[in-house]
Design goal:
Helix content: 25-40%
Order of helices and strands: EHEHE
Shape: globular
Strand content: 25-35%
Distance between the termini: 16 Å
Length: 68
């Protein structure tokens, strides 16, 4: 049986977490962001989608299919 291709999401931080709650800042940190305009890549999962929903006003999301 062939494995499904992993869906990779490219996420870019476009707005600072300054002025937002500590919980929002911790979510950005958990996603791997350290600075503005930084791009991180993560495999798509329900947990990741939940975090992105909470910080959707601060990030841009671009889906990309991993090729192997």
């Amino acid at each position: 049986m062939a494995k499904k291709q992993a869906q990779i999401l490219r996420i870019k931080l476009v707005k600072s977490g300054i002025g937002y709650t500590e919980r929002t800042k911790r979510t950005l940190k958990a996603l791997g962001f350290h600075g503005l305009n930084q791009v991180v890549e993560h495999e798509d999962s329900p947990a990741l989608r939940g975090m992105l929903t909470k910080v959707s006003h601060l990030v841009e999301i671009e889906s990309d299919t991993e090729e192997k």
